[in-house]
Design a protein that fits this description.
2 copies of one chain form a homodimer.
Chain A: E1 6-16, E2 25-41, E3 46-50, H1 64-73, E4 81-87, H2 98-113, H3 120-135, H4 143-148, E5 151-157, E6 160-165, E7 171-177, H5 183-188, E8 193-195, H6 196-215, H7 218-224, H8 231-234, H9 241-250, E9 255-258, E10 265-269, H10 272-289, E11 293-299, E12 306-307
Parallel strand pairs in A: 3-4
Antiparallel strand pairs in A: 1-2, 1-12, 2-4, 2-5, 5-6, 7-10, 7-11, 9-10
């Protein structure tokens, strides 16, 4: 039963990992976001149009949104012809979940347009086919917050077990230094083994971070945003990282770190004034170093993907 | 300013580790508990009397409660003479926080009796001197739930950062097979390194467990009570462990595992009927194996140490 024949959505950028929550925690941002329009058309099959300038493939199987949509359509009987128009505003390779926004946005739009009652777990699974096209790996840590909004936990990937966590208002500052960090490189340099005592430290911080979000305890969130395992290794790929972190925290940020596998760096803040002060510090660092950058001052997005019309 | 000259308290048993929460999570039990009486006496110094039959040392420096009390008294000006009478009901070496109950009970009783405004962190630190006497290590994972009640998180031991977590009603079944597992042995057999992918699995479960407690989501608590790192190694020291776990979960337990470093095994349950059914399974296993045992059917103790009079 088709209730409408066109839908337009905003699919938000997301931050995966959240410092100590490597591979399990993520959150959705108010900005930036992609705009995606999905419409029922007479021509059977799936057509993809990009109105942005990122020269992404438009063959459905090779396109992140397309591959996710095809996975969903496999589960729909008598699906109509569809046309997906994507205006990508989240720069690919930024570490802000650009491919997840495409994949999650496409499946959410289709589920609404086709009025099909998929579970959140189903939608995450379909969208993971898009992530596989993007990075070769079916990860869900950006998809989940994009779809559900707020702060999300992937307790287990197999079987998939996702949990939305309560969280207080958070103002988020991001700097995206315009350098390339490949996800595959960022994963490659990680050590395969960790010391038990470091792992224990990490799980104390993860537990503290989850408790901090759920209690709305900004100070506990800040104390828990420590990562002794991944960040020391990965941050060497991001020039200026240590200085951004130090200056941001001195300016009042609760804490933060690498967004996804980088190169973007994010900082969580209690209020907008601090978020803006942190932005000035980030600008200062990359202006001094001489690397092009883009900054965002945004908020935690509690809804995830939003229907525009 | 002394408000009273005698105080009697119940100091509860506790479960440390909570499966995936090795070294960071713990909870307090309604039963068993020690009864401790602290009174102001004319004779200066500290006298310790045990009315139980465990033949524990009564020289204050060598006694768990005594060492903790001496650490506290170091911070009190003009302390009066004190007499501590301990009726130990939590068997030493059970894995149920017997030494923590002595140490935490002693410092809580003293802080109330002397009407001294110590912080929770102060009390934990004093009590850790008692744990050092008991096991040679200043750990806090039994002390913290004993003092605070409920489910507690030690986010960081240095600096000490303790967090009490909300939790739903939980009915808890425990079996204490009467064998000896030394904490030092149980620690020795752990591998010093863990695979990153196993650590990630573990931190997903820890985050899920914290979220499950705070949401009061019994099913999520159950799914999160998995430990792929510590339990497979330590459980070999406890005959019948796998069968107890399998039969308890078949009888409806949410999940559980080794209490502290063992040999006691605990199971969390949603209701008293399940807790009692689980007890029958535990009895069945150890009767069959032919190892003496003791069982408890109890509840989460949300208050911790309680003043009797």
């Amino acid at each position: 039963m088709i209730m409408r024949n066109i839908i337009q959505i905003k699919s938000p950028a997301t931050i995966a990992n959240l410092v100590c929550g490597f591979d399990i925690l993520g959150l959705a941002l108010e900005e930036p976001y992609d705009i995606m329009t999905l419409e029922v058309v007479e021509k059977p099959g799936l057509e993809i149009i990009h109105t942005d300038n990122y020269q992404l493939p438009t063959i459905p199987e090779d396109n992140v949104a397309g591959a996710a949509l095809l996975a969903l359509l496999d589960d729909v009987k008598n699906a109509p012809g569809l046309k997906l128009t994507v205006e990508k505003r989240i720069k690919p390779g930024s570490g802000l979940g650009s491919s997840a926004a495409s994949a999650a946005g496409a499946v959410m739009a289709a589920s609404k347009l086709l009025d099909h009652d998929f579970s959140n777990e189903d939608l995450v699974k379909f969208a993971m086919f898009g992530e596989k096209v993007a990075s070769g790996v079916k990860h869900a840590d950006n998809i989940t917050p994009c779809l559900l909004g707020g702060v999300t936990l992937i307790r287990s990937i197999m079987p998939l077990d996702i949990v939305k966590l309560d969280a207080p208002d958070l103002h988020i500052t991001i700097v995206h230094p315009q350098i390339e960090v490949k996800t595959s490189d960022a994963r490659q340099i990680l050590k395969k083994e960790v010391q038990l005592k470091m792992a224990i430290k990490q799980w104390g911080n993860i537990a503290g971070l989850v408790a901090g979000f759920m209690k709305g305890d900004h100070a506990l969130i800040g104390r828990s945003l420590e990562d002794a395992i991944i960040e020391p290794v990965r941050s060497i790929l991001i020039p200026g990282f240590d200085e951004v972190k130090f200056r941001s925290k001195s300016a009042g940020a609760l804490g933060g770190g690498i967004s996804g596998s980088g190169p973007s760096i994010f900082m969580l803040n209690k209020d907008i004034e601090t978020a803006k002060a942190v932005e000035q510090e980030m600008k200062g660092v990359y202006t001094k170093i001489g690397i092009d950058f883009k900054t965002y001052v945004t908020k935690l997005n509690t809804e995830g993907i939003k229907i525009i019309e």
